[in-house]
Prior knowledge:
Layout: H1 13-19, H2 59-72, E1 76-80, H3 83-94, E2 100-104, H4 109-118, E3 125-129, H5 134-140, E4 145-151, H6 163-172, E5 176-180, H7 185-188, E6 198-202, E7 216-220, H8 222-235, H9 241-251, H10 254-273, E8 278-282, H11 292-298, E9 305-310, H12 314-323, E10 328-329, E11 339-341, H13 353-359, E12 366-369, H14 375-396
Helix pairs in contact: 1-2, 2-9, 3-8, 10-14, 12-14
Amino acid sequence: MQPSNGQQKTTGFSTRAVHAGNVDDVMTGGVNTPIFPSSAYRVPGPLGKVVYPRYQNIPTQEAVAQKIAALEGGECALVVSSGMAAISSVFLAFCGPGDHVVLQRDLYGGTHHLAAKELPRLGIEVTWVPSQDPEDFEAALRPNTRILYLETPSNPLMKLLDLQALAAIARRHGVLSAVDNTFATPINQNPLALGIDLVIHSATKYLNGHSDLCCGAIVARRELMDRIHGVAAAYGPSLSPYDCYLLERGMKTLAVRMRQHNENGARIAAFLDAHPQVRRVYYPGLPTHPGHAIAARQMRAFGAMLSVKLDCDAAQAQTVMERLQFFKPAVSLGGVESLACFPAQTSHAPLSPEERRALGISDSLIRLSVGIEDPEDLMADLDQALSAITEHRGNDA
Ligand SMILES: Cc1ncc(COP(=O)(O)O)c(C=O)c1O
């Protein structure tokens, strides 16, 4: 039962999402990759490969990894038990005591926490770059820098980084470049094609797409993956074959889901941008977004993540949140259903209030993960919730 991977380079994203990596069930003729639940496999003999779930070499695990690699245009991929497991595996694989990493300051709060609190404990030095200017990233590199770590669009303010320029800088200095591609997905952006070395996903989000699974993925060329694989086998963040099956099933609709996410994201962003109760919309598809030109160059579409600064205080923003009906007030993102959250209370809660202020994450900033519902229903929901602001003002007057 070998994964059929011939479709990697020549076919479209929808075809790859459906077919790449799939393992034929030769026993029954079933069209889905079988779930192989065993944790004990026959000893293969002195020259054979030992098969074991923690080594991530069960066919159910390899099948979904190949699908992700095919979508990202990478040589190989590894699926692990969370996005943070993917991120920490990359740092553990390439950094040790005395090494240095450079990260953009605008990042998912969990990654920020890992780099700020955990990496220094391992003797790894960290430098934060507060701008999006590639020259500032280059200036932060040192002879002992191992990884240039990026996230674009970033969580939650949707900052854009020029991946081609940053990949070239990293290569010139002999530093590995890594990008968290969770918000964009491989349908909208392929960092490897822009020269980036390592792509990371919280596959919990769009790749799975149904808010019922926690998992992560790394995509890279073989030589780098061998090192990551060794680290993952040692630390053990493997993903169970049952979860691999769920992820593979979710990914079959990734391209078609993203078409609707992209359309809904663009329509909701334009609607909110014109709304009198909204002060600012952070969405890379809006021509007024400071990173729009970069986004238009390196992304095929702009996704369905956006943040809004409302024209009101934190208490009124809370009322708006409570009134939303289709946008569920929940953490996480990238599922078929629309979600809303205050990053200050969720993704960026591990940061101090000062750190959040420095990033521009106010208590009333709302992040929306726009789902695949009918956009008219989502706009009506937002409109009725935002009317709370006018009513509040009316009561104050
Ligand atoms: C951009 C980004 N990267 C990584 C993660 C971490 O993923 P996980 O929760 O699957 O560990 C998240 C989680 O929200 C995220 O938004």
